């Protein structure tokens, strides 16, 4: 039973209660926004608007996306969520009827148009993923024990990496889309990071080579190799002569090179695993004077100017961090990064923030 002091702590006015209740319900129902965005992505709503010259009515959308006429009102409700969230915009005519509403793209939904060079729609199913959600639902029981297996292993009986080859390419396509866009921006903003690489680079966990191919194209003097798991390498395209593929395990051996690239790798692993991977990287590169370095492309939580951080808000960064818990991964702050670099035997590092989502970290032996 609560003591009088504890009861004081729970007291609130009716207005306060009503506001708190609305806020609580808002947080509980926020997942619907993710699911609605996923539905619109699967249906190709952004492409439909683009095909209609950038403006589409509800019935245009229905006919373009194959919505059954009996479900038109459901589509209207979905579009109401997505316009309230700023993912699409809507203009109404004078008559108050959603039937004359005209939907348009915003800067967010432009990223979902397949013909855009900034196309990120394949990333949506990677983040709005029922396998991740069902794993994260087990957080309370997992946190209460010293269980060493990750939430994903616990929920699905194997590590994430054993399933990505059999998911119809969804994960690989999502990562490839992210790499295409990220490298476009990175090479424009801080290409010097790669320009300084003497002659060879190994992209560890480089999947089907989208990132390595972008580096090889921009810097033909760099011989680019991708190291990934055997099943992933077996499905890699055979037609890209600029990239060599090597099957292996980064915990065991990394082929020698002037630079090792790790893009979205270390956030998949807990500290002790990152230290093991970084030690293998250190063994693979020459000294700093001879041009050796590790290039990490990841989030540094809280890094960059306040304006850059606003792009990927503090809340989004910490949400991504807890999302990564499903495979025992971590989004790290600078002090967490520096701890693993020094424990792995590196002597120095330099962070270049690109925006709130991505930073480039050069780590020196
Ligand atoms: C999150 S994905 C990142 C892919 C790519 N670097 C990118 O940014 O698009 C992680 C990659 O690490 C690979 N991987 C996982 N465990 C590995 C291991 N032990 N050795 C080599 N690669 C591994 C996976 O197959 C996958 O391609």
Considering the chains and any ligands shown, give keywords for the structure:
365 residues; alpha/beta; Arc Repressor Mutant, subunit A; Rossmann fold; three-stranded antiparallel sheet; 18 helices; binds S-adenosylmethionine
Layout of helices and strands:
Layout: H1 4-10, H2 14-29, H3 31-43, H4 45-51, E1 55-57, H5 58-65, H6 72-84, E2 88-91, E3 102-105, H7 124-127, H8 130-136, H9 139-143, H10 151-156, H11 170-190, H12 192-195, E4 200-204, H13 210-218, E5 223-228, H14 230-234, E6 243-247, E7 259-263, H15 271-284, E8 293-298, E9 300-301, H16 306-311, H17 314-324, E10 332-333, H18 334-343, E11 348-353, E12 359-364
Parallel strand pairs: 4-5, 4-7, 5-6, 7-8, 9-10
Antiparallel strand pairs: 1-3, 2-3, 8-12, 11-12
Helix pairs in contact: 11-13
S-adenosylmethionine binds at residues 161, 175, 178-179, 205-207, 211, 227-229, 232, 249-251, 263-265, 268.
Short description:
Residues 144-347 form the O-methyltransferase C-terminal domain. This protein is an alpha/beta fold and 365 residues long.
Detailed description of the structure:
The protein has 18 helices and twelve strands. It folds into two domains: 83 residues, Arc Repressor Mutant, subunit A; 238 residues, Vaccinia Virus protein VP39 (Rossmann fold, 3-Layer(aba) Sandwich), CATH 3.40.50. Helix 11 runs parallel beside helix 13. The mean pLDDT is 92. The strands form three sheets. A seven-stranded mixed β-sheet has the order 6-5-4-7-8-12-11, sandwiched between helices. With 365 residues, the protein is α/β, with parallel strands linked by helices. The N and C termini lie far apart (59 Å). The radius of gyration is 23 Å and the shape is globular. The site of S-adenosylmethionine (SAM) has 19 residues, from helix 11 and strand 5.
